[in-house]
Write a structure and sequence with these properties.
single chain; 68 residues; mainly alpha; 74% helix
């Protein structure tokens, strides 16, 4: 609960920045890289923004379906 009140400890992206970087974040994530190093602040944003988290989950599901 305290984390929600205080917010993220590190950098966090805006929704606009998230939208711009989501493809790269998911690409790194899907190839086994470190997406948090590739796009700092994305993880914190996705934890706190349900709309962007839904976009992330949808993109991951789409790419997994394409690979199957």
């Amino acid at each position: 609960m305290i984390d929600r009140v205080l917010g993220p400890r590190g950098p966090e992206l805006t929704c606009e920045q998230c939208f711009e970087e989501l493809d790269r974040y998911v690409e790194v994530e899907m190839t086994g890289g470190d997406p948090d190093a590739a796009v700092p602040g994305m993880h914190a944003h996705l934890r706190g923004c349900p709309a962007c988290a839904d976009d992330h989950e949808s993109l991951v599901a789409l790419l997994r379906a394409e690979r199957a």
